[in-house]
Write a structure and sequence with these properties.
Layout (H helix, E strand, L loop, with lengths): L1 H8 L2 H30 L6 H32 L3 H26 L5 H25 L5 H20 L8 H41 L1
Helix pairs in contact: 2-3, 2-7, 3-6, 3-7, 4-5, 4-6, 5-6, 5-7, 6-7
């Protein structure tokens, strides 16, 4: 139903604004993060143009992940008519993803850097909980689990190529850079989309009332 609501209540103008604004968020955040990481750790992640393109790429990946989630959510609700069962499955998948992320970090970064790398799953979980709480507080209580699932699942799956690179161990600053951009873009998308759909529904109701009067 959420996917149907998106298609019905979002105009092309609003959809374009959402896509472009998400790309801008990724690009701006990438520049801020790269200079922040350079100031704190002394690590140079690349030149300005390269970092800008990287931020845009991560933002685009986040957008594709969000569209994929909308389709998954729509299909899953079609097969699973019981909301409690669907929520339970999502919670189970969240635990599986977090466990796999911890295991991946433990097996790949065992040693002195393990503790630092285990901060990444913790940050993903804490930010996801905060976004899910905010969304459920501003919309409906039933949005908590779906939002938490999207934030954890999408961010984890999108960040895996950076964490588990075939080229070898990825420096922790770049992992943090990647995860933070994906977290912020995913948070922005799900909160912004909810606002756009709600505003569109209110505008449609206003127009309908005026036409009936």
């Amino acid at each position: 139903m959420f996917l149907v609501a998106v298609l019905i209540h979002m105009t092309l103008k609003k959809l374009f604004f959402w896509i472009v604004s998400t790309l801008i968020v990724g690009a701006v955040l990438s520049i801020v993060l790269v200079y922040g990481i350079r100031a704190v750790t002394g690590t140079n992640l690349g030149e300005f143009t390269q970092i800008l393109l990287t931020g845009l790429t991560f933002a685009a990946v986040a957008e594709l992940g969000f569209f994929s989630y909308l389709v998954f959510n729509w299909l899953a609700k079609g097969f699973l008519r019981n909301p409690k069962l669907f929520s339970s499955i999502q919670i189970f998948l969240i635990l599986i993803l977090l466990f796999n992320l911890i295991y991946l970090n433990t097996s790949k970064f065992a040693g002195s850097s393990l503790t630092a790398h285990l901060v990444v799953p913790l940050v993903i979980l804490l930010v996801s909980l905060a976004v899910a709480w905010w969304k459920s507080a501003k919309s409906v209580a039933g949005a908590f689990v779906p939002t938490l699932f999207f934030m954890v699942a999408a961010t984890t799956l999108e960040a895996i190529p950076s964490i588990n690179s075939k080229a070898g161990e990825v420096p922790l600053p770049f992992v943090v850079f990647t995860v933070l951009i994906l977290l912020v873009c995913n948070s922005y998308q799900i909160l912004q989309l909810s606002w756009l759909v709600t505003r569109s529904q209110k505008n449609n109701e206003t127009v309908r009332k005026r036409s009936d009067s």
